[in-house]
Specification:
This protein is α+β, with helices and mostly antiparallel strands and 550 residues long. The protein is 27% helix and 18% strand. The protein has 14 helices and 18 strands. Strands 1, 2, 6, 7, 8, 9, 17 and 18 form an eight-stranded mixed β-sheet that branches. Strands 11, 12, 13, 14 and 15 form a five-stranded antiparallel β-sheet that branches.
Length: 550
C-alpha cells in the first residue's frame, strides 16, 4: 500500500487522550518519535478529565523529599493484598500471587516514580504529595484542607499499609489541572491530536506486525500509518451494555466515564488474537438508581454522607460498613445468596433522618444529598414514619421492576428495619459499631462530613425518634471498567500464548489492569495509566520501523 494512501503517517499512533494516552504520546515524542493521538470524543481528557485528576504513585519523589520512606517490600504487601486477596500469602516469594500478576504490580512500584520524574523533568507534569499524618491525639481524624490533599489510601486500615498518606500526587497548587498540564506538554513536544476519530481495525504487514490503524470519522474510513507502533489507551467498556452483561459480575446502573468508553480495544484486541484478563473487575462506585435510569452518567455516592445514615438491603438489614472506600463498598452489590438463589443486595437503601437532610454543611462528600431548600432531585424518597417510608420505597420499586429484576421489599423489611435502627442507635451511643466497625479506619472518617458535638464516633449518630425520614435507592456503578487485553511489564499486548503482538502496546483502563480488584488509593487508575503509558511510549519509540508493502 503506497504511503500517499494514508491520511496520517507517524512513528507512533496513540488511541485515547486520557492520562495513559498523554503519558505514552509525550514520552514517545520526547524520545524522538513523531506522534499522532486519536480521540473518539469531541474533546480530550477521557475519564481522566472526569475524575479528580490525581495520580497514586508509590515511592514518589515528592514524598521522599518530605522525609517519608516507602520501602518496596511494604508497598508490595499492601498492593498485592488489595489486588488479589484470594491469593495473597505474605511468606511466599511472589506474595502468593501468580508470577505475572506480581510482576505487573512490582513494576508499578519500580517504574511509577520513574515515569513521574521523567515527565516532570520534561517540563510536563508538576505534581505534589501530601504526606501529613493524622492527628496523633485523634488518629482517625485527617488534616483539614483540600479534600484531595492528605487523603488516605483506601486500604489504610490494613496492617500491610505502612504509609497511609503520601502516595497520592495532585497538581501543585497554582498549576493547571492534570489534563491541562498534559495538553500543554503535548503541544510543547509536537504531538498532533485528532478528535472525533474512532479506531476500528489494526493494520498488519505480512510479518504480522502492527503497522497502522483504520479509523472512522463520521461515515468516512480513515487510514493511519504507524511506522513503529500503535498504543491503545482508549478507556474501558463502561458504556457497552453488551460487554457489561457478558463480563461483569452483577447489574450495573451507571458510570462517570467518558461516553467513548465503548470497549473498542476488547473487540480490536480479539481480532488480532490478544488474550483478555481482569474482565470481571472495574473501578467500582455506587449511584442513585433513579438518577441512573435517566442519565448514563448519574451523580456518584462516593462516601455516603451523614452520621445518622445507614444502608440496608431488601430485608431491612445492614450488610456493609457504609463508610468504606467506594470501590470496596460497592462490591457488596454482587453478593450471591445460594440459599435463596438471589442477589439480596442488588439494590441498597440509603436511609437517613432529618438531622442529616437539614444540615447546611458542605464538608465531606455530600453528593448526591441535596442542600436544604434545593429543588427535589427526584430520587429522594420521604416519609413521616418508618412505615410510610417503607411503603413509598416499595411503591417506587414497583415503578422500576423491569430495570431491577422485579426487586421489591421483603415482607420482613419494616420489622427488620426497626431492629436494625435500634441496634445502630446503640452503636452510636457507645461509639463502637460491633457489626461492621464503622469509623475505625482512616478512610471511614475522611470526607465524612461534620462531626456532631459530643459524639464518641463522628461517623455514627442515633436516628431521630420522629420523622421525617428519607431514602435514596442505590445500585452498583463504576468509574470505568479495567479489563481488556493482557500486557507485560513493557506494556506490550500479549496473545493467548503469552507472546507479544509486534508493534502493539496498551495502557490505562482498556487493558487488563495490574490492580486486579483493588483501588489502592485516590488516583490509582490514573497512576497506573501514567506508569504503563510511559513504558509503552518509551518502548514504542525504540521499535524498528515496520514495512508495509502493497
Amino acid at each position: 500500500m503506497a504511503d500517499d494512501l494514508f491520511d496520517f503517517d507517524a512513528d507512533v499512533l496513540v488511541v485515547g487522550t486520557g492520562g495513559a494516552g498523554f503519558a505514552a504520546a509525550i514520552t514517545a515524542a520526547v524520545e524522538g518519535a513523531s506522534v499522532v493521538m486519536f480521540e473518539r470524543n469531541d474533546h480530550i481528557g477521557g475519564t481522566t478529565g472526569a475524575s479528580g485528576g490525581t495520580a497514586w504513585i508509590p515511592n514518589n519523589r515528592s514524598l521522599r523529599e518530605q522525609g517519608k520512606q516507602d520501602p518496596r517490600d511494604d508497598a508490595l504487601r499492601y498492593m498485592c493484598k488489595m489486588s488479589h486477596p484470594q491469593y495473597y500469602y505474605a511468606d511466599h516469594p511472589t506474595l502468593g500471587l501468580p508470577a505475572d500478576a506480581y510482576e505487573l504490580i512490582a513494576n508499578h512500584y519500580d517504574s511509577g516514580s520513574v515515569a513521574i520524574d521523567y515527565l516532570t523533568e520534561a517540563g510536563v507534569l508538576d505534581l505534589t504529595a501530601d504526606t501529613r499524618a493524622p492527628d496523633p491525639d485523634n488518629p482517625m481524624e485527617m488534616p483539614s484542607g483540600n479534600l484531595l490533599q492528605g487523603f488516605p489510601d483506601y486500604g489504610a486500615d490494613l496492617e500491610e499499609d505502612k504509609l497511609p498518606t503520601g502516595r497520592h500526587l495532585f497538581p501543585t497548587p497554582g498549576t493547571p489541572g492534570m489534563v491541562e498540564q498534559f495538553e500543554l506538554g503535548a503541544a510543547k513536544y509536537g504531538v498532533q491530536i485528532v478528535l472525533e476519530h474512532q479506531a476500528m481495525t489494526l493494520l498488519r504487514n505480512d510479518e504480522g506486525e502492527v503497522a497502522g490503524l483504520q479509523l472512522r470519522r463520521g461515515h468516512e474510513a480513515v487510514l493511519a500509518r504507524a511506522r513503529k507502533a500503535v498504543i491503545f489507551a482508549s478507556g474501558g467498556y463502561a458504556h457497552s451494555a453488551e460487554l457489561i452483561e457478558r463480563y461483569l459480575p452483577g447489574r450495573i446502573y451507571g458510570t462517570c466515564s467518558t461516553l467513548g468508553a465503548q470497549g473498542d480495544f476488547v473487540r480490536i484486541g480479539l481480532e488480532v488474537g490478544a488474550a483478555l484478563g481482569n474482565m470481571k473487575n472495574a473501578w467500582w462506585k455506587q449511584v442513585p438508581l433513579e438518577a441512573a435510569l435517566v442519565s448514563p452518567t448519574p451523580p456518584s455516592v462516593w462516601l455516603p454522607w451523614g452520621d445518622s445514615m445507614i444502608h440496608v438491603n431488601k430485608y431491612g438489614k445492614r450488610v456493609v460498613n457504609e463508610k468504606m472506600g467506594y470501590s470496596d463498598r460497592s462490591q457488596i452489590h454482587f453478593t450471591y445468596d445460594p440459599s435463596e438463589r438471589e442477589y439480596p443486595n442488588l439494590l441498597l437503601f440509603m436511609i437517613y433522618d432529618d438531622a442529616v437532610a437539614s444540615s447546611d454543611s458542605m464538608d465531606g462528600m455530600r453528593q448526591p444529598l441535596p442542600m436544604p431548600g434545593e429543588a427535589d432531585p427526584g430520587f429522594v424518597i420521604k416519609g413521616e414514619t418508618w412505615d410510610e417510608l417503607a411503603a413509598k420505597i416499595d411503591a417506587r420499586l414497583a415503578e422500576h421492576e423491569e430495570h431491577t429484576a422485579g426487586l421489591r421489599l421483603d415482607a420482613s423489611f419494616s420489622e427488620n428495619l426497626a431492629a436494625t435502627i435500634e441496634r445502630f442507635n446503640g452503636f452510636a451511643a457507645t461509639g463502637e459499631d460491633l457489626d461492621f466497625h464503622r469509623g475505625e479506619g482512616p478512610i471511614n472518617r475522611a470526607w465524612n462530613g461534620p462531626n456532631r458535638e459530643g459524639s464518641p464516633n463522628p461517623t455514627l449518630a442515633p436516628f431521630a425518634e420522629k420523622g421525617p425520614y428519607r431514602c435514596i435507592i442505590v445500585g452498583a456503578g463504576m468509574l470505568d471498567t479495567n479489563g481488556g487485553p493482557v500486557i507485560n511489564t513493557s506494556a506490550q499486548v500479549l496473545d493467548g500464548h503469552g507472546t507479544p503482538i509486534p508493534g502493539l502496546y496498551g495502557a490505562g483502563n482498556c487493558i487488563a489492569s495490574p490492580a486486579g480488584q483493588a483501588y489502592w488509593g485516590p488516583g490509582a487508575t490514573i497512576g497506573l495509566g501514567i506508569t504503563y503509558g510511559h513504558l509503552a511510549g518509551r518502548a514504542a519509540a525504540a521499535e524498528p520501523e515496520k514495512r508495509f508493502d502493497v
